[in-house]
Amino acid sequence: MAATFHGVRATVAALSSSSSPSNSFGCKRLISSPSRSFSVRKRASFTVVRSDGSVNFDLNSKGRRAQQLIANAVATKADSSPASSSSKPGHELLLFEALREGLEEEMERDPRVCVMGEDIGHYGGSYKVTKGLATKFGDLRVLDTPIAENSFTGMGIGAAMTGLRPVVEGMNMGFLLLAFNQISNNCGMLHYTSGGQFTIPIVIRGPGGVGRQLGAEHSQRLESYLQSIPGIQMVACSTPYNAKGLMKAAIRSENPVILLEHVLLYNLKERIPDEDYICNLEEAEMVRPGEHVTILTYSRMRYHVMQAAKTLVNKGYDPEVIDIRSLKPFDLYTIGNSVKKTHRVLIVEECMRTGGIGASLTAAITENFNDYLDAPIMCLSSQDVPTPYAGTLEEWTIVQPAQIVTAVEQLCQ
Amino acid sequence: MNGASCAAKISTQPFSLNPTSPTSHDNPLVSPKPTSLFLGSTRKLRLSSSSKLNLHRRSGTVVAVSDVVKQKKSKSTPSLLITKEEGLELYEDMILGRAFEDMCAQMYYRGKMFGFVHLYNGQEAVSTGFIKLLKQQDSVVSTYRDHVHALSKGVPARAVMSELFGKTTGCCRGQGGSMHMFSREHNLLGGFAFIGEGIPVATGAAFTSKYKREVLKEADCDHVTLAFFGDGTCNNGQFFECLNMAALWKLPIVFVVENNLWAIGMSHLRATSDPQIYKKGPAFGMPGIHVDGMDVLKVREVAKEAIGRARRGEGPTLVECETYRFRGHSLADPDELRDPGSHLNPFFSQVQKCHLIQCRAASLAAEKAHYAARDPITALKKYLIENSLASEADLKAIDKKIDEVVEDAVEFADESPVPSRSQLLENVFADPKGFGIGPDGRYRCEDPKFTEGTAHV
């Protein structure tokens, strides 16, 4: 099975057509979430630990390494701006490098953290998320497995039950359909059936979503299948910043976490802090505050939404864009506050319509915030069809920015 | 036949990927008699041993290590296979398994436990023979037929019975049930109800042992994992995938097949192209051993060697224990299917059919009677008494003690409280933040309704 596709090549110029300006736009985070000063809240938007308080520039080994990686990446991605901005704090890297950095830091921090999956070791991972880790940590901590998804996922679960903290990579998340039994029965339920005796601190991650003409099986939208498994958490990363922060948080979580990455986002570039930080697994991310309508989205659709937002702003609308990030459970606080402010909700997802994340989100908003809604919730999902190969058909399968603009205009009438 | 040298050859060359592996000698196709295609079948064995046709179950030169062990023992050391203490421990464990399961049947019919309850009667020699050799830190991974594995591993009868009653004092607080027994304290990793899904988990536990020793530098970590499963599982992909990975990485695991000849109503012979499961070990570069699973002493000898190999870091072993369940698949199974006529495969040749038609004479009753006559507990009892390792009185005392243990377990389970509502949401997430953030900005698990178990999740 498993046609080995050339991941990096497939994601080169990932966002070139649909969201080239998105780096400057979508990756801007609101560092502090607005009006959240509950004294009882134990959580923070993210944790910044300054190890020494000083900002290191070129002498910082991490910064230097990151620059080297960027140099490599730039070679394959000509359109990215070189911007030799070593004077700014932080370091610039691509999303797959951010994932690797998070993984590497956690492996350094805790020797129980290990990685297993197909071609993650010597080959470096199909999308190079684990490149170089086998050399650094050895073949046991970065375990190349045979092509046996159900069994190596189960093995990760057994290892997690007995004290390790494995990160299992699905070469393509779709392949993990072959591991669905292990993910559902053992990853999700075993903590409960064992009466709480065994914990499964495992991370299951990998590339998914609709890529560029990869065909139906490699263009899966698995979140709808996975969301109803009890006992697991599911997050989707969308920027280098949150990719690293969510990776680290997922590894540190005592719960099994599925981390969804998108094949078309791996080459997104962003400047991220040099300091150690993690993201909150349960929290949504405010991407663009606004007044007129709440747009809830996640993963790659964030960039379609931001592209649409530009048009909408030109047309006089002020949309609020939230990357829900946690697909299970939903951050009802962030979502609720937004609904109470705008009274209108548009959900934009790549997931299939039937039984999708949008459907669950619609239900949750209706249950909790129905009184605040001035219009029925609109949900733009991808079509309930197997992802077609042909470029035109594929494009019509997933939501396009123009549809988002139309939907907002309709909602705000 | 030179069994000793052959078995030694297998066990000393476990990782040989030599194309002329021992299995090639065992090819039934080159066997002298045409009917030998099925000489290796368990069915034949039943006939041969009952009708004294002297047909060998195992054609060729791959020989059960148990025979070797016996030969070795009888030649080199005239002493007995076990000490008195060991004998009594084995006897007590087997009696506990049998008495516990018989009590389960009673309690099930009395409406004290529900669902699918799979009893272990008849297979006790396997659980006892293997698990009694383990240390507390060693792990056991079981199937849906897991009560007795739990008991052998040291989980108290009270905790197992209480779990079956669905009580909060059960080993999984009543959240697991018959097919999901776990004990962290005793390193019982489950209790897996789907066929084959426990094998990868067991492989993962064995991987942890290796990882602890080699990465975390816990030099004294020599923990072994036993994976128990049945003949039906041996046609499942996870079995093959894990044999491969375990041999590839030399993991400290023993794959224990409890071949009771039946996968619910599917005869092993109708489901399996080559019914000799132990032969699949050498195909993956690990020793494959067949042992009489109705003889606890033989099982124990083979287990000793296999567990020892794993503990010494010499890699995995596949052990096929030929055994028999005395009851139906579960207490919900009327057990009407175990009829020899159903063995007939429409694709069998005429010769094969002729042979098998003879088998029809052997009725279901005969099959059962044959194995009942080889009841592992009766056999051990006989051995202990004949070798003056125990007196009738000794054994009677154990029987009585176990009766009391089981009675006590029932009483304990009966009197234990059912889980309260507050338990409902407690173990969904190890970190209850997994329930997420509510509309008020607080983690939902902080809501009193969550601790009460009344929250809507």
TrEMBL record, chain A:
The protein's role, per its UniProt record: The pyruvate dehydrogenase complex catalyzes the overall conversion of pyruvate to acetyl-CoA and CO(2). It contains multiple copies of three enzymatic components: pyruvate dehydrogenase (E1), dihydrolipoamide acetyltransferase (E2) and lipoamide dehydrogenase (E3).
Cofactor: thiamine diphosphate
Molecular function (Gene Ontology), one example: metal ion binding
The keyword Chloroplast is annotated on this UniProt entry: yes
Superkingdom per UniProt: Eukaryota
UniProt-recorded name of the protein: pyruvate dehydrogenase (acetyl-transferring)
Reaction equation(s) it catalyzes: N(6)-[(R)-lipoyl]-L-lysyl-[protein] + pyruvate + H(+) = N(6)-[(R)-S(8)-acetyldihydrolipoyl]-L-lysyl-[protein] + CO2
PANTHER family, sorted: PYRUVATE DEHYDROGENASE E1 COMPONENT BETA SUBUNIT, PYRUVATE DEHYDROGENASE E1 COMPONENT SUBUNIT BETA
Classification via Gene3D superfamilies: 3.40.50.920, 3.40.50.970
NCBIfam families xref list: PRK09212.1
Annotated InterPro entries: THDP-binding, Transketo_C/PFOR_II, Transketolase-like_Pyr-bd, Transketolase_C
Main subcellular location of this protein, as a coarse class: plastid
Organism: Gossypium australe
GO CC annotation terms, alphabetical: chloroplast
Domain Transketolase-like pyrimidine-binding: 93-268
EC numbers: 1.2.4.1
Gene transcribed to yield this protein: pdhB
Alphabetized Pfam families for the sequence: Transket_pyr, Transketolase_C
Subunit structure, as described in the record: Tetramer of 2 alpha and 2 beta subunits.
Localization terms from the record: Plastid, Chloroplast
Keyword terms, alphabetized: Chloroplast, Metal-binding, Oxidoreductase, Plastid, Potassium, Pyruvate, Thiamine pyrophosphate, Transit peptide
From TrEMBL, chain B:
Sample GO molecular function, one term: pyruvate dehydrogenase (acetyl-transferring) activity
Domain Dehydrogenase E1 component: 93-335, 371-419
CDD domains assigned: TPP_E1_PDC_ADC_BCADC (cd02000)
NCBIfam families per the UniProt record, alphabetical: PDH_E1_alph_y (TIGR03182)
Functional note: The pyruvate dehydrogenase complex catalyzes the overall conversion of pyruvate to acetyl-CoA and CO(2). It contains multiple copies of three enzymatic components: pyruvate dehydrogenase (E1), dihydrolipoamide acetyltransferase (E2) and lipoamide dehydrogenase (E3).
Gene: pdhA
Entry annotated with the keyword Protein transport: no
Annotated keywords: Oxidoreductase, Pyruvate, Thiamine pyrophosphate
EC number: 1.2.4.1
SUPFAM superfamilies given in the database record: Thiamin diphosphate-binding fold (THDP-binding)
Record note on quaternary structure: Tetramer of 2 alpha and 2 beta subunits.
Keyword Oxidoreductase: yes
Catalytic activity entry: N(6)-[(R)-lipoyl]-L-lysyl-[protein] + pyruvate + H(+) = N(6)-[(R)-S(8)-acetyldihydrolipoyl]-L-lysyl-[protein] + CO2
Named cofactor requirement(s): thiamine diphosphate
Enzyme class, UniProt record, top EC level: oxidoreductase
InterPro entries per record: DH_E1 (IPR001017), PDH_E1_Alpha_Subunit (IPR050642), Pyrv_DH_E1_asu_subgrp-y (IPR017597), THDP-binding (IPR029061)
GO biological process: one example: pyruvate decarboxylation to acetyl-CoA
Native source organism of the sequence: Gossypium australe
Protein name: Pyruvate dehydrogenase E1 component subunit alpha
